[in-house]
Specification:
heterodimer; A: 589 residues; mainly alpha; 27 helices; B: 420 residues; alpha/beta; nine-stranded mixed β-sheet; two-stranded antiparallel sheet
Chain lengths: 589, 420
């Protein structure tokens, strides 16, 4: 079965040809523009396109050295370390990844799972199946995907609504309480869909009846809280679903069916979910990721489209409406086929879209269709929060794409060690942990195993201190409130796609008085180090413009810049400050 | 269904003629429900947003003796016959200052949509973005402090609708951590006033010669940089510094982000900030709700009563309206995990100060808190009440870029009877 599937994927992947596919998309895009009576923009100049491609695919500006090579950007960037950071954040916003899930449950393993999926370019359908069917202990080598279930612990109906929104781009949440007022979903269909996964439970203490919860109640009061926290970390698990039905609730308001009746799991739309024994989520996952599912490929395709073209074919990107098996416009159909032909390979799909003529068009600041579609060129928009921060990190540090992977083997070893001791082991670990916190750094060095436990309980990666100049993906997920990333609009991960492009005064203050002077203009920064290494003022101007705006300075700008540089060190800093606060730096276009 | 143009014309006609277009029969119960130019006595609004969906049965609308009540009981308050959830004892003592609304209803049962509706009076649509209540107030009312922004949001989520289609400067200044106050308000070390001016001039020069197109994303920041410069020069920056309060005052509010937020809100309205929103999250109590709600109530029951007393003792309560609201309530029937699920059909809110007559309850839910039993209050009605209290012209239509007209509380009617 598995071999057959792999073989199929292989064939499917081979059916795709990026250059041909891009050309076909261009034909359909231009046809759409013609229908809308819009003239496509001409091609953007090389510098604009280079900067755009870096921001879209690498999630940051190129360094000056990197910017020297303009060739073959889509191929070189997609899959690169820089891409991995950007794509992690893109998916983390979609999946609402948090370092700390509900009830103090750990998100570290989920983050590690997403890291691995992005780095190895795991196909989207495989990722989806892993998340939808995840069960077992969270702190196990393959436990990370449970994060998607843990994320909505105790909210099985919301989880179903969020599942449809995440993977099908379809909002059925209204139908949780009544037939959807604006779309076709009925409350009955909602319950049927939720029945696949509602029985999958999250247990903080590794199972309801193992008595751990009770035993911890008897722990000494000063150790109780820490003991419970440790128990949550080491014991958290997802119990597979067994039943595939839900009861009709008491507030049922329709003639057909009565409260208390059982509703069985059923796919939201044609085709039916395949039959299978065991956890009903296996059927859900098989149906969801099937190539016959008319929404699964389109939903992720539309998201990638938005990421690359700045406007989804459907907007909002997770609000596909109407009859799922009705014919969609040709461009949407072609996009869905592209996703399937590429075997849900996210890298290949991004690369293909980047190869279109349309991707290379000059920007567009005119009106956009409210329900999505095709714009004549790239809509001018504010730079996303993560790309903004990551670009500042790029200017300030030597290795912007440095990363630290979470040591899963270490964590699971520690977990097993503590669990073996049962309640006593947990209480003992709590005792040591409290002592270690009092003892500070030194105590942590003396007891690396316990330090690992402490690490589990902190929402950050090992080296991500509060002021760490690391890319967003390496910081706590999300960065804490008040962190520059949050001020710039990073998602709080409470809702799907919750990042914001809203401008506010705090952002202006941050750029004027905070991170620019503090980090980017610091003498230790890469930018200032490189600028100071150049003696010729003209070379400095060239370098500064290339680093910050990724283009050559115009003659008029050079005049202004020379005047500044004549003022010495302050002039150089002020010039860099002004570029980093300029309208141009804040835009993707 | 909702033809905005037609509605706008009707509203405009109503405003101009000073009469209602409702059929006469609907007037009998509460004749002065619509007044064209309301005058409230509130200068400022402190909006305490209980994010996640606050259980009305366990807080503002307990049902003692009913099976639905669950493990959290009810306690009497300083007002005869009015009870609160058992974990709000401090607030109970100040019931004489508060009005409860127990018949609030929303059409939105998901968080994102519910919060958006509560904040804007409009349901989420496509890519259109409606202004939040505080942004409307910033646009409709004169600025009271020339340098502090008129709308400040403390601890709110990342997708606040903010200014919506109004100018960016109407949107909230976000404060992530109130204990840290306003970050980055002072120039970096070594940058004096002259140098700052020079930088701004240089920035203006480069922007003027730059290649950035004339787009909304560009214009908005020009406005906000001007705001930022004003703010940096403000005499009132000290408002953001909670350490200037005595330890006793700080203790009374509670040492948590919400308590800090309430204290900061008081310091801001004191200096003429029009609207301050403070968010307390964590009310999405789908399981083990008794434990979680107790935990939330302990926080709410410090910050809110402290805020009310503090405002009163400074003579600010008469001019400051305090509102406590959530995106929806929670189901009276407890689920199998000892929690309560979303329940937009009926929930509660609290108002105090700014001309609100304390010690009263508006509306009522049915015996189990399932649905409003009388005097149903729609979300736009609630926001219209805030608008009325602040003296905003609710009939004033402002246009989104695509030309569609909107008003501060859509078609909401203020609960005029709440006011003294």
């Amino acid at each position: 079965m598995r071999a057959a599937l792999l073989c199929l994927l292989f064939l499917a992947a081979n059916a795709a040809d990026p250059v041909r596919d891009a050309a076909e998309l261009d034909t359909l895009i231009e046809a759409q523009l013609a229908t809308d009576k819009l003239a496509p923009q001409p091609q953007a100049d090389a510098a604009t396109l280079q900067r755009r491609t870096w921001l879209d695919l690498a999630g940051r500006l190129p360094t000056v050295a990197e910017s020297r090579d303009l060739t073959d950007l889509p191929r070189r960037l997609v899959g690169s370390p820089a891409w991995q950071h950007a794509t992690f954040e893109w998916l983390a916003d979609l999946l609402r990844v948090q370092s700390r899930l509900q009830d103090r449950n750990p998100g570290a393993l989920w983050i590690a799972w997403l890291d691995a999926a992005v780095i190895t370019n795991r196909p989207w359908d495989v990722m989806t199946r892993e998340m939808l069917t995840a069960s077992g202990p969270v702190y196990a080598a393959d436990g990370g995907a449970t994060g998607f279930v843990m994320r909505d612990a105790g909210m099985p109906l919301d989880h179903a609504a969020l599942t449809a929104q995440t993977f099908l781009g379809t909002r059925i949440g209204c139908a949780q309480c009544h037939d959807h007022p604006y779309d076709r979903w009925t409350r009955l269909e909602f319950l049927q869909f939720a029945s696949f996964s509602a029985d999958a439970r999250t247990d903080a203490y590794g199972g309801k009846n193992n008595g751990l919860k009770q035993q911890l109640k008897d722990a000494p009061p000063e150790l109780r809280n820490t003991s419970r926290a440790i128990a949550t970390f080491v014991g958290a698990r997802v119990q597979p679903a067994r039943k595939d039905w839900l009861e009709i609730p008491k507030d049922w308001q329709y003639e057909e069916h009565k409260p208390g009746e059982h509703v069985s799991a059923q796919a939201l739309f044609h085709p039916a979910a395949p039959a299978a024994a065991g956890d009903p989520r296996l059927r859900l996952a098989a149906w969801m990721t099937s190539q016959e599912n008319p929404r699964f490929a389109l939903a992720i395709g539309n998201r990638i489209w938005k990421r690359m073209f700045g406007l989804g074919l459907v907007e909002p990107v997770d609000d596909l409406r109407g009859e799922p098996d009705a014919a969609v416009p040709p461009l949407q159909a072609r996009l869905a086929r592209l996703v399937i032909d590429n075997g849900f390979d996210l890298q290949r799909i991004h690369r293909t879209l980047a190869l279109t003529r349309h991707y290379g068009r000059a920007s567009w600041s005119g009106a956009l269709p409210e329900k999505g579609g095709v714009a004549p060129g790239r809509p001018v928009a504010r730079i996303p929060a993560t790309a903004w921060w990551d670009s500042l990190v790029t200017l300030a540090t030597d290795e912007p794409d440095a990363r630290q992977l979470i040591d899963i083997a270490m964590l699971t070893k520690v977990r097993d060690g503590i669990l073996k001791g049962g309640a006593d082991g947990i209480v003992a670990a709590a005792q040591r942990l409290i002592a270690m916190r009092k003892g500070g750094q030194k105590a942590a060095k003396d007891d690396p195993e316990l330090a690992a436990v402490a690490q589990m309980m902190r929402p950050s990666r090992p080296k991500a201190g509060k002021d760490a100049l690391l890319r967003a993906s390496q910081l706590p997920q999300p960065a804490p409130p008040g962190h520059p990333l949050r001020i710039l609009g990073q998602s709080d991960r409470e809702l799907i796609d919750n990042a914001s492009l809203q401008p506010n005064t705090s952002q202006a203050l941050l750029l004027m008085n905070g991170v620019v002077d503090g980090e980017v203009l610091s003498l230790r920064s890469r930018l200032m180090h490189d600028l100071n290494a150049l003696n010729d003022p003209e070379a400095r101007i060239t370098h500064l413009w290339q680093a910050v705006l990724v283009r050559r300075a115009t003659d008029a700008e050079r005049v202004t810049a020379r005047n500044e540089l004549a003022r010495g060190r302050d002039g150089l800093a002020d010039l860099a400050w002004a570029l980093l606060n300029s309208s141009e730096f804040r835009l993707v276009r | 269904m909702n033809d905005p143009t037609r509605r706008a014309i009707l509203l405009r006609a109503a405003g101009l003629l000073g009469v209602s277009l409702l059929p006469p029969g609907l007037w009998s119960a509460d004749p002065p429900a619509v007044t064209a130019a309301p005058v409230g006595s509130a200068k400022s609004l402190i909006l305490l947003f209980m994010a996640g969906g606050m259980s009305h049965l366990d807080t503002f609308d307990p049902k003692p003796g009913r099976e639905v009540q669950g493990p959290i009981g009810a306690i009497p308050t300083s007002v005869d016959g009015v009870m609160l959830g058992q974990h709000l004892p401090n607030l109970a003592k100040q019931m004489g200052r508060c009005a409860l609304i127990r018949s609030l209803t929303s059409t939105q049962g998901a968080h994102e949509q519910g919060v958006y509706y509560m904040r804007t009076s409009y349901t989420m649509r496509g890519t259109a973005r409606h202004p939040a209540v505080g942004a409307w107030a910033a646009q409709l009312l004169p600025r009271m402090n020339p340098t502090l922004p008129p709308f400040i949001a403390i601890g709110s989520d990342s997708r606040h609708p903010g200014a919506g289609f109004l100018p960016a400067a109407c949107g909230p200044l976000p404060i992530g951590d109130p204990a840290k106050g306003l970050q980055y308000a002072k120039p970096a070390k070594g940058i004096d006033g002259a140098r700052q001016d020079h930088r701004m001039a240089l920035l203006g020069d480069l922007d003027a010669h730059g290649t950035a197109p004339d787009a909304e994303a560009v214009r908005a920041y020009h406005e906000l940089y001007a705001e930022a410069v004003k703010l940096m020069a403000s005499q009132d920056l000290a408002a953001f510094d909670l350490s200037q309060e005595s330890e006793a005052v700080r203790d009374s509010y509670g040492d948590d982000a919400f308590g800090h937020g309430c204290l900061l809100a008081r310091r801001l309205v004191e200096r003429g900030v029009r609207t301050v929103e403070v968010t307390l999250g964590g009310w999405d109590t789908h399981d083990d709700s008794a434990t979680r709600i107790e935990d939330r109530c302990n926080i709410l029951d410090r910050g809110l009563p402290a805020l009310l007393s503090d405002l009163a003792s400074r003579g600010l309560l008469a001019t400051t309206m305090v509102a406590v609201v959530s995106e929806f309530g929670r189901s009276p029937k407890m689920n199998v995990r000892d929690g309560r699920d979303h329940h937009p059909k009926c929930f509660s809110a609290l108002l105090a100060g700014g001309g609100i007559r304390g010690g009263q309850v508006y509306g009522a839910s049915d015996e189990d808190g399932q649905a409003p039993a009388r005097d149903t209050v729609q979300v736009p009605d609630f926001n219209a009440t805030l608008a009325y209290g602040l003296g905003c012209d609710r009939t004033r239509m402002l246009h989104a870029p695509d030309g569609r007209p909107f008003t501060m509380a859509d078609k909401g009617k203020p609960l005029v009877s709440l006011f003294a």
